[in-house]
What we know:
Elements: E1 2-3, H1 12-22, E2 35-40, E3 46-51, H2 56-66, E4 86-89, E5 100-104
Antiparallel strand pairs: 1-2, 2-3, 3-5, 4-5
Amino acid sequence: MYTSRISDIEIPYLHNAAYVLSLREDTKGNKIYKFRSLHVDPCGECAISYYGKLTEQQIKEIMINFCYPMEDKCYDEITPKYNIDYCYQNGHHANGEDEFTIIFTPDGLDYTKI
Length: 114
């Protein structure tokens, strides 16, 4: 499954995680996380992307919402690793797409069975 709309996410856990993050605003009322896409592969693993080059703290917040459905984690317990847990992409400049961050969920976690 691939979607660029939160409303089209069919897996309740993933939909709820994306929706909750979409509500986050800074002190000026600007959305902090601008959803780009979600891809769930045939094994149930997924990658989610947000526009912009997210900070490590923002990546941790996304990981807390998406990557640990059966555990409670705090920020200090998470150490995201570049090209393993997340990566930055430059976008497709031909169609004007901006830079974005992709967060990868843990290997072997099948979201279709949660």
